[in-house]
Amino acid sequence: MPAFENPSIYELNYTDLGTIWEAARIAGVKPGTIRVWESRGKIERVQLDRRGALYHLPTVKQASEVKPGRPKAA
Q1: CA neighbor of 44 nearest in space, from 35, 10, 18
Q2: Pick from 1, 50, 4: which is nearest to 23 by CA?
Q3: pTM value?
Q4: Cβ neighbours of residue 57 under 8 Å, at least 6 residues apart?
Q5: Bridge partners (DSSP) listed for residue 17
Q6: Residue 73 pLDDT more than 70?
Q7: Residue 17: in which H helix or E strand, if any?
Q8: Please, are residues 4 and 39 in contact by the beta-carbon 8 Å criterion?
């Protein structure tokens, strides 16, 4: 189960989906980082048909706003 889950397949809006390149642009990272996030379970791809991997861009944006590492002590 990914840390940032996509909405249900029935709640998806096709205009919110994008390729790995669009996901990287939205997140401000390289496409390789999107692959790492996926392999580590931070995000997941949306598989609609044989067109290949698509990503829910609002979920990717939300995941990009969480910085890695431990929180600072209070």
Answers
A1: 35
A2: 4
A3: 0.83
A4: 16, 17, 18, 22, 23, 26
A5: 56
A6: no
A7: strand 17-18
A8: no
Within 10 angstroms of residue 54's Cβ, the number of other Cβ atoms is 21
pLDDT of residue 57: 96
| The dihedral formed by the CA atoms of 59, 4, 63 and 12, expressed in degrees to the nearest 10 | 0
* Spatial contact of 27 and 60, defined as CB atoms under 8 Å apart: yes
Cα–Cα dist 47/29, whole Å: 22
- Phi, psi dihedrals of residue 4, rounded to the nearest 5°: -115, 105
| Coil/strand/helix, residue 36 | helix
The count of residues in the chain is 74
CA–CA dist 15, 71 (Å, integer):
34
Instruction: Give first-to-last CA distance, the chain, whole Å.
Output: 30
Question: Under DSSP, is residue 28 helix (H, G, I), strand (E, B) or coil?
Answer: coil
